[in-house]
């Protein structure tokens, strides 16, 4: 009888919280996916989100600028099929412009999507982050520019900036 009770108790025990986490929750808890730039006094949340995302795409190797030197700070994205972080960086290198071309702000609860054009033209990616400026992640689906142009879904284009 005791064995049966132990087995029942084992089956009824709740799963560990980490096993039930969504990707968003896991990203939020991951310190490597938090903004690494200091917020300026009087800087709007939107502008800070843009600066955070711009730093993220540079640090993570998506631009032609040098990424973070510490490969332990490189985070995986959902489409990483290569064996090493060095290979991830090689595949990412130079794929995105370093300056954001648009931003979308969620209306119900502030979440941000910062839009970056492909460096070779024709298309874009969004970098998403939460209201605490964490959960930074490149979304590997094409972003539709007409959403920015039409200012739909809390989105707006940003003024063009020259490459430095």
Total of helices: 5
Q: Provide the residue-averaged pLDDT.
A: 83
Distance between the termini: 74 Å
Kindly state the number of beta strands: 5
Main pleated-sheet profile: 5 strands, antiparallel
Shape: globular
Describe the structure.
The protein is of the alpha+beta class and 164 residues long. It has one domain (22-157). The protein is built from 5 helices and 5 strands. The protein has helices at 2-12, 23-29, 45-59, 85-92, 145-149; strands at 102-105, 112-117, 124-129, 137-139, 155-157. The protein has a 5-stranded antiparallel beta sheet. A hairpin with a 6-residue loop joins strand 2 (112-117) and strand 3 (124-129). The model is unreliable at 3-17 (pLDDT under 50).
Primary descriptors:
164 residues, 13% strand, alpha+beta
Short description:
Helices cover 28% and strands 13% of the residues. It is of the alpha+beta class and 164 residues long.
List the helices and strands and how they pair.
Elements (H helix, E strand, L loop, with lengths): L1 H11 L10 H7 L15 H15 L25 H8 L9 E4 L6 E6 L6 E6 L7 E3 L5 H5 L5 E3 L7
Antiparallel strand pairs: 1-2, 1-5, 2-3, 3-4
């Amino acid at each position: 009888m005791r064995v049966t009770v132990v087995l029942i108790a084992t089956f009824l025990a709740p799963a560990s919280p980490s096993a039930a986490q969504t990707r968003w929750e896991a990203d939020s808890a991951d310190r490597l996916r938090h903004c690494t730039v200091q917020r300026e006094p009087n800087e709007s949340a939107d502008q800070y989100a843009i600066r955070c995302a711009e730093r993220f795409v540079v640090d993570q190797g998506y631009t032609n600028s040098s990424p973070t030197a510490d490969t332990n700070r490189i985070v995986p994205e959902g489409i990483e099929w290569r064996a090493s972080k060095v290979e991830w960086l090689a595949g990412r290198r130079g794929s995105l412009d370093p300056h954001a071309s648009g931003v979308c702000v969620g209306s119900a609860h502030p979440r941000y999507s910062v839009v970056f054009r492909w460096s070779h033209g024709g298309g874009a990616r969004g970098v998403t982050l939460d209201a605490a400026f964490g959960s930074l992640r490149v979304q590997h689906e094409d972003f539709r520019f007409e959403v920015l142009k039409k200012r739909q879904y809390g989105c707006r284009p940003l003024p063009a900036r020259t490459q430095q």
